[in-house]
């Protein structure tokens, strides 16, 4: 078993011991858990989990994979980066997500069906922007292919929920979102921070 996999499993076991990890929740479960302050503080997902497969198939991964391939071609065997909804998609994405929530998933379901899972999944709506890192597990110079491990990390907080674009963003985050998140975390209240870590392995073509 690769070192990356072992490290991931160690982290998952520690989280399970601390938080009583049970059956894997989906994005809707996570949303209600965050709202009411229930469930695990840390959730781990691997290949085959619905949460993993939805984000793995999401359109945002086109940008992430392109950046990963560029980094490997430049000689990096590991790298940490991120996907920003506002930088890549802007206001239309916020409006789309809000419409999806208000329609109880109706518009998202339609987009998901029409796009073959690239747009509108509950996981994409829930996770929004996220951080990622990758590590090269193996590389074949003859075929130009590499096997990589990809890990996505996301914190769901009051600050991220109130993360609006524009000049007021940093002030809302500093004086509203972060203080309220700190209180919720300190007293284990509803809207406390929930963290998601997603890991899977896949092949990429470097040519």
How is this structure best summarized?
49% of the residues lie in helices and 22% in strands. It is an alpha+beta fold.
What structural class is derived from the secondary structure elements? alpha+beta
Strand and helix order: HHEHHEHHHHEEHHE
Say how many strands there are.
5
Percent of residues in β-strands: 15-25%
Q: C-alpha Rg, in Å?
A: 18 Å
Strand arrangement within the widest β-sheet reads: 1-5-4-3-2
End-to-end separation? 27 Å
**Bulk shape:** globular
**Low-confidence sequence ranges:** 14-20
Overview of this protein structure:
With 207 residues, the chain is of the alpha+beta class. The protein contains ten helices and five strands, in the order ααβααβααααββααβ. A five-stranded mixed sheet has the order 1-5-4-3-2, sandwiched between helices. β3 (130-140) and β4 (145-156) form a beta hairpin. α6 (91-102) packs across α7.
List keywords for this structure.
single chain, about 210 residues, alpha+beta, five-stranded mixed β-sheet, 5 strands, globular
Describe how the helices and strands are arranged:
Elements lengths: L2 H17 L7 H10 L5 E5 L3 H7 L3 H14 L4 E6 L1 H4 L2 H12 L3 H10 L6 H6 L2 E11 L4 E12 L1 H4 L7 H18 L7 E12 L2
Parallel strand pairs: 1-5
Antiparallel strand pairs: 2-3, 3-4, 4-5
Helix pairs in contact: 6-7
């Amino acid at each position: 078993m690769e070192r990356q996999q072992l490290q991931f499993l160690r982290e998952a076991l520690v989280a399970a011991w601390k938080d009583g990890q049970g059956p894997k929740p989906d994005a809707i479960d996570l949303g209600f858990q965050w709202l009411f302050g229930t469930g695990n503080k840390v959730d781990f997902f691997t290949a085959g989990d619905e949460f993993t497969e939805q984000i793995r198939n999401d359109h945002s991964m086109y940008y992430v994979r392109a950046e990963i391939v560029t980094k490997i071609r430049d000689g990096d065997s590991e790298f940490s980066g991120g996907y920003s909804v506002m930088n890549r998609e802007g206001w239309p994405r916020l409006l789309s997500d809000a419409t999806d929530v208000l329609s109880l998933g109706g518009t998202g379901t339609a987009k998901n069906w029409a796009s073959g899972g690239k747009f509108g999944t509950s996981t994409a709506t829930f996770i929004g922007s996220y951080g990622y890192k990758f590590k090269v597990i193996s590389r074949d110079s003859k075929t130009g292919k590499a096997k990589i491990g990809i890990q996505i990390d996301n914190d769901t907080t009051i600050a991220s929920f109130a993360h609006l674009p524009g000049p007021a963003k940093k002030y809302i985050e500093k004086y509203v979102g972060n203080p309220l998140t700190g209180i919720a975390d300190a007293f284990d209240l509803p809207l406390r921070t929930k963290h998601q870590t997603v890991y899977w392995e896949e092949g990429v073509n470097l040519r």
